[in-house]
Predict the 3D structure of the following.
Amino acid sequence: MQNVGNLDRIIRIILGVVLLSLVYIGPQTPWGWLGLIPLITGLMSWCPLYAISKTKTN
């Protein structure tokens, strides 16, 4: 079941890729691995926090 809309999904994927790039380019900080969270939720179109709060953006 999807609870992430198209615009939200695109924003999450872009944000995830940008954060992951911080691991390899730029400051090379391990905090960039947090980019996996928005990337995965964007690719799956499902967010566990939205499920808990019964929120949908689609």
User: Anything to note?
Assistant: The two ends are 11 Å apart (CA to CA).
